[in-house]
Write a structure and sequence with these properties.
The chain is α+β, with helices and mostly antiparallel strands and 148 residues long. Strands 1-2 form a two-stranded antiparallel sheet. The N terminus is likely disordered.
Length: 148
């Protein structure tokens, strides 16, 4: 019995840090980096996905965001809401259907100044058939899904 109690006490320091750092679920962040390391500003400024670098990193919404340049990092830090993708960077079509799923950086669309990402180009074709309707359904689902 004493041995079990000592083991339990010895394990507490290892468990506590994991509890102190909750997993952020409202942002698509495998490995703690948003958008699989892609620069969210590049979709707006270059019209294409671009891989960011850890050297140009911002912390926003409890997650690291990587950027391709110091200029893109500065733009994001000045107004994160202007560049952060809708629905935490999860597939917007998936959110419209009631679930969170990863994205393909090549399947993107900017609508009314907001970046929407999709699972792949096939899903993106479905998304484009009714963008306003999908946005409305995704917006209704997002509060329930954000921390799920």
């Amino acid at each position: 019995m004493l041995r079990r109690s000592l083991f339990t006490l010895a394990a507490i320091p290892f468990v506590q840090p994991a509890l102190a750092m909750p997993r952020v679920r409202a942002v698509n962040n495998a490995g703690g980096v948003a958008l699989r390391g892609h620069d969210t500003v590049a979709w707006f400024t270059e019209g294409r996905p671009r891989r960011g670098q850890a050297a140009f990193q911002a912390d926003h919404a409890g997650v690291a965001w990587h950027f391709a340049s110091a200029a893109n990092l500065a733009r994001f830090e000045a107004d994160p809401a202007a560049f952060a993708p809708a629905f935490g960077g999860y597939c917007a079509f998936g959110v419209a259907r009631g679930y969170k799923v990863d994205i393909d950086p090549e399947a993107w669309h900017i609508e009314a100044g907001v970046l929407y990402l999709n699972y792949d180009r096939g899903v993106q074709r479905q998304w484009r058939r009714d963008i306003p309707g999908h946005i409305a359904r995704a917006a209704a689902n997002w509060p329930r899904l954000a921390e799920a």
